[in-house]
Amino acid sequence: MHNNLDIIIIGAGPIGLAAGIEAKRKGLRYLILDKGCLVNSIFNYPLNMTFFSTADRLEIGGIPFTSTHAKPTRSEALEYYRRVTEAEGLDVNLFEEVTAVITQENGTYQVESSKATYNTKHIIIAIGFYGIPNLLHVPGEELPKVKHYYFDPHYYYKQKVLVVGANNSSADVALETWRKGAEVTMVVREPTLGRIKYWTKPDLENRIEEGSIKAYFQAGITEIRENEVDIETLDGKVTIENDFVMAMTGYQPDFSFLEKIGVQLTNDYKRYPLYNRETMETNLKNVFLAGVICGGMDTHVWFIENSREHARVIVNHIASKENASN
């Protein structure tokens, strides 16, 4: 039992690290826990991924992020957040999953993890959304050829690849695998391409127009088989040969964890967690939300650049209460 912590921060992504920095600078006793590696979501981004944001918008703790590119890359971000963690001497326990949060009689919390048990006055939940993919809900989705995560285009050389989706990740997968020798088909639910980085969209549009990448718009997959995929299009059903389905359909936060510990969510599809907009405190006293988790299913609302402020707001609120009680 590790007693007398002021804050446990669940999630060692950029926002969780930002909260740790703020807590340390305020002299609070804190610990950051994460079930994966440091900035686990960024680690799981595609190998060649480039951020839409500039480096200064990804900075935390006022520590400069220098990049050799106009837009920083995945590898640069990993290096930056490692260096920040080391430079600040942050207390981070990685590969340690929080399994339970129990309210004590005195109003503090007992946090149980896969490795230890902790007592804390406050909890900051800064978990991301990259761990649970949005499913297609079609027959055959359980086949090994169906991928919800993408890493390196080389793997798909000389393969027939079907990419589902119309946004940034779908565009990157389609273009990168095509350039590495894959035969690429896209299935897009909407009538046009979606929200794509401005330097990528014209490239993809040109590849589709010239026929290098085949695209079905206002279409959807109806069944996946070992060597084929059925697609429902405006002109009826189309069956194509296929080796891999890249379902770039987005991800969702771990709502079951929030529900398990008692954080209230709206009952609609959006699953917005309820919290005080000024303090970020949930319906559970001294339990706070930070980062993308605040947006429920609207995972496009909160990014590093507009939610890093959550860390400062929450820790300032906690620190002011601690000072008032001392």
Question: Can you walk me through this structure?
Answer:
The chain is α/β, with parallel strands linked by helices and 326 residues long. It folds into two domains: 2-132 and 251-325, FAD/NAD(P)-binding domain; 135-247, FAD/NAD(P)-binding domain (3-Layer(bba) Sandwich). The chain is 25% helix and 25% strand. It has helices at residues 14-25, 40-43, 74-88, 168-179, 201-210, 255-261, 304-325; strands spanning 2-10, 30-33, 92-93, 98-103, 109-113, 117-125, 132-133, 146-147, 160-164, 183-188, 214-217, 220-224, 228-233, 236-241, 244-247, 251-252, 287-289. The strands form four sheets. Strands 1, 2, 3, 4, 5, 6 and 17 form a seven-stranded mixed β-sheet that branches. It has a five-stranded parallel β-sheet with strand order 8-15-9-10-11, covered by helices on one side. The protein has a three-stranded antiparallel β-sheet with strand order 12-13-14, with no helix packed on it. Helix 1 (14-25) links the parallel strand 1 and strand 2. Helix 1 packs parallel to helix 7 (304-325). The longest helix is centred in the C-terminal third of the chain and has 22 residues, at 304-325. It starts with a strand and ends with a helix. The model has no long low-confidence stretch (mean pLDDT 94).
